[in-house]
Structures are given as C-alpha cells and as structure tokens.
Fold each of these.
Amino acid sequence: EDNRVESRGALVVLEGLDRSGKSSQCSRLVSFLERQGISAELWRFPDRSTNVGQMISAYLANTSQLDDRTIHLLFSANRWEKRSLMETKLTTGTTLIVDRYSYSGVAFSSAKGLDLEWCKAPEIGLLAPDVVIYLDISPEKAADRGGYGGERYEKLEFQKKVAESYKVLYDASWKVVDAFQSIEDVEKELQDIVLDNPITSL
Ligand code: Z5A
Ligand code: MG
C-alpha cells in the first residue's frame, strides 16, 4: 500500500569532499529505492554531457584555463540548463538522487577566496532540495582512500579549504553521515534518512 503524502518525487542531494563516497552511495541509493518500488534516477553535477559540461570537464582536466568567476558561472549554468527537466521529473513522480549540487558550487569557489554571497547569487531560483546529505570525512582520511586523479581540485591542501567552506554552508536541516564507516553502514544510514522523508516514505 502506498501511503506517500505526495505523488511528486523528492530531490535528494549528496554532498561531500572528493572520495567521500558520493558516487558509490548515490547508485546504491537509487537501486534501493527502485527495489522499494519508488521511481528514482541518478543525476550528477557537473553533467559533462552538455556543451557547458564539456567546458567544465576540460577545465577540471587542466586542458583549459578559465578565470575563477567564469568557471563558477559555468558550473551554475550547468545546473540551470537541467532545471526544467529536473522539475518535470520531480512533478511526474520521479525521485532524483543528485551527486553534488549548488553547495559544491559555492564550497569550491569560495575555497578559492571568492566572496560567499557572490558565489551564492547565481544559484538563486534553482530547485531547492528536499534533503541534503553530507558525507562527512576528514580530508586526510579521504586522501588515504587513494585514487585521487589528476583533476584540478584533487589535492589535499585544497580539499582542506573546501572542508572549511562546507562548514560555513552547513545548515541544521542537513543530514550528516559519518562517511568513514563501511560502505554498507553508510548505505544503511542513507536508506533510513530517505525513507524517513515524507515524500519518499512508504
Ligand atoms: N565542482 C565544483 O567546483 N563546482 C560545482 O558546482 C560542482 C563540482 C558541481 C568534479 O566533481 C569536481 O567538480 C569536483 C568538485 C567540482 N572536484 N573535486 N574534488 P565530481 O563529482 O566529478 O568529483 P568526483 O571526482 O566524482 O568525486 P569522487 O572522487 O568520485 O568522489 P566520490 O564520488 O565522493 O567517491 P566515490 O567515487 O564513491 O568513492 C571514492 C573511492 O573510495 C572509491 O574507490 C570507493 O570504492 C571508495 N569508497 C567509497 N566509500 C567508501 C567507504 N565507505 N569505505 C572505504 N572506501 C570507500
Ligand atoms: Mg564521484
């Protein structure tokens, strides 16, 4: 029996440092929801498949150089170009599990020293998440996981600054999960958080 209070889908955002386990957990969460009979899709930002996304990807790979504000606005534009499709999905009942969103945009750019309010401004009007889950891990422990690629931000010193920026953005409504647990323990906590939400609870 389906007792969900609303028929729309939920917008669930996972945030956290590089290597915190977002991508692993997003796909596990989508599979879990599908097993519960809940329509769910995995989304991620940056979405490198669009023209804007390809510019972002080249920047991250260090094959192009862009001014800090220019790349900030491209990350934001990459969310804006997906806004209407996201809205359609949500209103037609699909829950979106999103791997990084506006908080990444603000955390990474403000970690470079850009003004916080300037960083937030282009995000105004994007769809507000129903749930924000922060996968909490220290930059050192995340780096120990290895596999830092050669992308622009994948350096311990910068990740420490990003961790400080996330602390500034932290809001009491966020669900903070200890990401240094086993993959399975983190997975279980995320399932409980999502099922506890009125939009996705059965
Ligand atoms: N960025 C930005 O600046 N502005 C924006 O607006 C947005 C993003 C949206 C690319 O993003 C960069 O863009 C990113 C932020 C910036 N730069 N950095 N840093 P991305 O999402 O493409 O970044 P990523 O490279 O996909 O992050 P990641 O390295 O994939 O991390 P993850 O998704 O959080 O982790 P994972 O891939 O799930 O796991 C990492 C490894 O750890 C892997 O080997 C797992 O098997 C392992 N793992 C995962 N969980 C565990 C546990 N619990 N225990 C042990 N090992 C684990
Ligand atoms: Mg990832």
Note: The mean pLDDT is 95.
Amino acid sequence: TAQGGVGQQVDYKIVGIDPGAGLMKATEKAIQEYELKDWELVEGSSAAMTAALTQAYKDQKPIIVTGWTPHWMFSKFDMKYLEDPKGVYGEDEQIHTIVRKGLKEEQPSAYAFLDKFRWSPADMEKVMLAITDGQKPEEAAAAWVKENEALVNEWVAGIEPAEGQKLTLAYVAWDSEIASTNVVKEVLEQKLKYKVELSQVEAGPMWIGVSNGDVDGMVAAWLPTTHEDYYQKLGDKIEDLGPNLEGTKLGLAVPAYMDINSIEDLKK
Ligand code: PBE
C-alpha cells in the first residue's frame, strides 16, 4: 500500500533543523517512543529544511519535516501535522522574553518595552511571509511596525527614549525568531532610539549569552517544554519576562497530499 511504502519513499529520513533546537530533541524522543528503528533524523538548518520542503512540494513528492507553528509553511503549502497519540511533542506552550540580570536597573527603557512586548501568531506569520516572499528581515519588520502603529505605541507608551544606548539581542536563525527579533529591534531603534546589535547564534549559546550577560536579552525562549533543558540549567541566572506569544505547536509535518496521518503510520 501507499502507507506501507512511506519509509521507502522518503528513504527513512525525517528532515530536521539545527541540532540545538528543542524540536530536534523531541523528534529523537519520538523516534524512540514510536520505535522507528530504521528512521534517521537529518540535521541541518531551518533554511535547508524549508528549501527541501519547497522543492518536494513543487514536485509533489513525499517529505517529512520537523515543523512548528507559527510558521509560513502552513500558509504557503497545504500541510498537515502527523498525529502524535503519545504526546511526545507536548502541549501548547508559549514563547517567552528573557533578559539578563541587571537590565532593569541599567537599561530601564529597553526592559520596560521588552516586558510589554506581546503579539499574536497571525502578527508573526505576516512578518515571516513577507520575508519568505523576498523582503529583507529589517524591511519586513519596519513595514509591520508601520502598519501596526497603534499596537506598537501601546508597547512603548510612557517609556523614555534611550538616546543612542547600545543593546544586543541574541537569536537563532529559525524563521519565527528572525521575524520576532527584527520587529523588536525595529521598535527599540525607531521608537526608543537604541542602537541594537543582533547576535545570531545556536540555541545553547543564546541561552548562555543571556545568563552570563554577554547579551542583553532574547525573545526566542520556547517554554515550558521545548527549551526545558536550557531553562533548568540557567533559569536562576536570567530574568524571565513571561510570554510574548501564545498558540504554538511542534511536530512532524507533511504535505497534505501524503497518505499518512499519524506518526504511528511511519512504522508500517
Ligand atoms: N523551533 C522554533 C525552536 C524554537 C523556535 C521550534 C524550531 C526549537 O525547536 O527550539
């Protein structure tokens, strides 16, 4: 049957992303728990994964990727998550804003805005889509800020501009975090007059950078599950400003034209 052939069709490969991602750890766990012995999780990057997906979709070929929401792949392509009856990928979680200790005293304006920053999956998706469609991240962020002036002004209401102070934000090159981090940079620069440097790193160094004060903060912490390891190790050396976005999901995603519905179908 077509179902029985899925492993052969995709060469028993799941197309993954960067090894530091929580999504990769969850997928290794899924391979264990669903006893997918012949299967391999291929390491790469967010960009390599979406390139492979784009090509496969164009050719209407089978592919299995590590996916998450918010992500533009679900609006560009007709995709579905494979059911996860064992609950390996966890429940809904939130994306948190994390800052270094001492930021509140040393950069009260940045701290106040970062504490206030909160948006929706639809907002984030809009920025992600613009970037996928060819805009530079800074351009897409600036356009979004312009179109959402009322919300942005709420975030910065009553906050004193910082007049040229420097700030560094860390992020990982995940599509979702490229979008959020560039929007936050744009607001800090345009509305609060900071000079913001973005430091693109892997997930581990991102968390460590905030914990040791090398960077001022990040808006890319997926909690309580996806980045649990990092949080457990470093949670008392950082300040958690709480969720900036709710309504996320992680899992294995496939084009809707594939004839499988559950991770369990990969065993057949
Ligand atoms: N992600 C996107 C990240 C968090 C943001 C799901 C790829 C991760 O797996 O760590």
Note: The longest strand covers residues 238-246.
Amino acid sequence: MSLYRTFSAVDAVEYARQFGAVPDPHTLVVADEIGDGNLNLVFKIRDTQGVSRVIVKQALPYVRCVGESWPLTLDRARIEAETLLVHAQYCPQHTVKVLHHDAALAVMVQEDLSHLHIWRRELVDGQAYPQAAAQVGEYLAQVLFHTSDFYQHPHEKKAAVSRFINPELCQITEDLFFTDPYRDHERNRFDTALRPTVEALWRDAALKRAVAALKHRFLANAEALLHGDIHSGSIFVGPTTLKVIDAEFGFYGPIGFDIGTVLGNLLLNFCGLPGLLAPRDAAAARDNRLQDITALWHAFSVRFSALIEVYGRDPALVESGYAEQFLKHVWQDTLGYAGTELIRRAIGFSHVADLANIVEPQARHACQRHAVELGKTLILTASDIPDAAALLARVRQSGA
Ligand code: SR1
Ligand code: MG
C-alpha cells in the first residue's frame, strides 16, 4: 500500500519540525503554500516570529498547472533530491541544500532561500547581477564534469545512468522542446497574430531536420547528470550568492542541453526587454545580457577544460587536444538547444514572464517573433557561429 498522501499546510509544518534540521523545531508554526511553478506543492515554513526557516516541497501525482488529466510520476521527487545531492557533492556553493527527503511521500525538505531572489524576476525588472552568469558557468562545469566519462569510473557511470532514468519527465522535454512547436499541436499556445510565423516553422523542413538531430542527441547522448530544466526561474541570486533549485528533470543527457537552456533564457530576456522596460533601460539591460552570455560560456569552458586537465581519469579521453574538440561539440549543441528553448517558450505550452509579461499586444508579438527568428537562426546556423563573440554578433544583427 502506498504511504503517499498530499500534504496540507499543517502536515508540512509537522514534517518540517521532524525533518527540517532546525535547532528549535517547536517554534515552527505556519506554512504558506507558495508554489508558482508548473508541477509541485511548495510550502514555506515560518516560525513564531514570522521568519521563514525551511522549505517543504512535495510532488503531486499530476502536472499541477493542468490538473489530474495529466498524471505524472511521483518518482520525480526522488530524482530531484538525488540529483541535488550529487550536484551538491561537486558544487555545494551553488546547489540548494537538501536537508531530508522521502521517496514514498515524494517530499523533500530544503534550505530556505528567502534572502535571495528568483533570477527571472530580477531579469524581467532589469536588475543586473553581474556575477550570476559566471556562477552558473562554474556550477555547470563542476557538476557536468564530475558526472561525465571524463571523471566517473565507467562502472559507476553506468550504474548512475540507470539510477537517474527519468522517462516521464524526459518525455515532457522531448515533446515540449522538440516535437509540439514544429507541428500543429493542441498544447501550443500563441496569439493569432503569431500564426504566420508559427506556420512558417511547421513548413520549414531544414529546421525540422536540425531539431530532429537535437532531439536525437537528447534521447541518446548520456554525457553527464544534467539538471534538466535550468532556466532562470530555477536559479536564486543575490549580490554575491547563487543557488540552483528544482532538479526534477535530472537525467544523463547531452551537456549542451543544460548550457543551452540557461543561454536560451538569457536570450529570451534579451528579446523581451524592449517590451518590458523604457528604451534606455532596455538597451542597458540588453548589454548586460550579452555580457552574461560571454561570462557564462567563458566560466563554463575554462573550468571544464581545467578540470579535465587536472582531474580527468579516463586515459583515452585526456588525450591532448580532445578536451578542445569535445568543447566545440558542446558549444554547437548549446546553440541548438538554446534555439529550441527560445522557440518553445514563445509559442509552445510553457511560456516565460520575459515575453508573457509584456502588456501591449503589438510589442509582445514583436518580441515573441524575435525570439522565434533568433531561435531558428541558432538552430540552422550553429556551425557558422564558432564562439561567443560570433554569437553576440548574430544576436545584435537579429532584431525586433
Ligand atoms: C508540464 S511542465 C512544463 C514546463 O515546466 C517545467 O519547468 C519545464 O520547463 C517544463 O517544460
Ligand atoms: Mg522546475
């Protein structure tokens, strides 16, 4: 018999008292359900002083934003906690701390991050966090290197691949990133004004072949334990601190998917800024986004290469020149996956505030079209974009 039951606020407080690792558990008294994501319940647990102390997160047996008509495995809670624990082993400074988890209840207690801000909200408001992009690059280099074949023993790696098999969550990505946006699917969501742009996607055979290749690599290339959904809403930032949360899409996949997802979200913000802010503020924020993109790739690639040089264990993979060759392949994937993130967030099932919050419809449509066109460019011309400088040139040329 299953032990699972959906938590009430009272259950969440009781659970936090037992498993929250707080020094004075009897002072925990109130839970506010604050989940605004697509999938889960999230309770913020406060003490008698009203101070937020710990987070209790529980998976529901269905997709929260749709309801019971879209059932979804509870095993995602185990995968999330275990992915975060592995990532914390290699990059504790940028991974949210898991204090306790229980697979049967699909519940996890994690550190409270109320002193930080969700990066997406800050980006939408035009707030700059100059260290954030390099910190994400550091996180990705550490967790992806240490779970890859460059570092893991082949037996350990194969066991880990099997432990992180995540078919239902991967299917969401397979459908929402690579399939639905490129055909007339009921899950797509776009205003009528976007229809000509969207129908052009559906007719674009070269684009669909390039997306097929990206999907194929997502399905087949078990390169490292990915976060799997690392968009700017899964990242908390402060002036000097950054923490990644929400790893329920974790699985062994292509390294460029994680980097491309973050990069795609920076570009979504770039596309949305003219609709979100006054012209001068938007221009300044756009410059910051371009700097973020350079900083992200620089931090990732420099650290990943250094880790291979110093800690690489596979005698064949550490061959001189191979790290450079591998990073070229990761860069190409990064561009392609960033392109798919741009397109699916503009016209697919799951939209982002960077575009959706633009109130004036014409401005919103212009920014959404920009995201789609830029996404197409990245997917179709990745091989002509050898480095971050070339990418910035392409992005500057693209335009609303
Ligand atoms: C049905 S879930 C839709 C999206 O929300 C998650 O955060 C992932 O990005 C997923 O694609
Ligand atoms: Mg998420």
Note: The domain at 9-111 is CATH 3.30.200.20 (Phosphorylase Kinase; domain 1).
